[in-house]
Amino acid sequence: MNFFADYNNLALIALAVVSGGLLAWPAISRSTRGKTVNTATATQLINKRGAVVVDIREPAEYAKGHLPQAKSAPLADLPSRAAGLAKDKAAPIIVVCQTGQRSGKAQAALKEAGYSEIYALEGGIAAWQQAGLPLVK
């Protein structure tokens, strides 16, 4: 019991707890965001399983360039437009934004609308372009 009464040991215990929390943070935050896919997996989902691509960027961003066959549904309008995005609620949906930061909110809205298989594109449009994949205007 003397170990816990010493202030130097308490500081070491606090340091260990904080560093452990910081190490676990990426895994915890990843699990709350939802599933993500990289550009290669997204391409496979689109080509092999007919995934629906939903671009949640603003209309001006969408007009500058978007994935082929992507449906525009700005994040603010997504809850009201979610029902008409795909005929089958079990179809895979890939949510796309500019960098992947806004996708978590869209995934939550689509899950609430009844869709079961929702992915976010890691890195968003920026990663898509970096991979040399096509955009359409």
Topology:
Blueprint: H1 2-5, H2 7-33, E1 35-37, H3 39-49, E2 52-55, H4 59-64, E3 71-72, H5 78-81, E4 93-96, H6 103-112, E5 118-121, H7 124-130
Parallel strand pairs: 1-5, 2-3, 2-4, 4-5
What does this structure look like?
By secondary structure, this protein is an alpha/beta fold. It has 2 domains: 2-32; 34-130, Rhodanese-like domain (Oxidized Rhodanese, domain 1, 3-Layer(aba) Sandwich), CATH 3.40.250. Helices cover 50% and strands 12% of the residues. The protein has a 5-stranded parallel beta sheet with strand order 1-5-4-2-3. Helix 4 (59-64) links the parallel strand 2 (52-55) and strand 3 (71-72). The protein starts with a helix and ends in a 7-residue tail after the last helix. Keywords: Transferase.
Structural class: alpha/beta
CATH homologous superfamily of the largest domain - what is it? Rhodanese-like domain
Q: What gross morphology would you assign?
A: elongated
How much β-strand is present in the residues?
5-15%
CATH topology of the largest domain: Oxidized Rhodanese, domain 1
Major pleated sheet: 5 strands, parallel
Distance between the termini: 69 Å
Could you name the ranges where pLDDT drops below 50 across 5 or more consecutive residues?
Answer: none
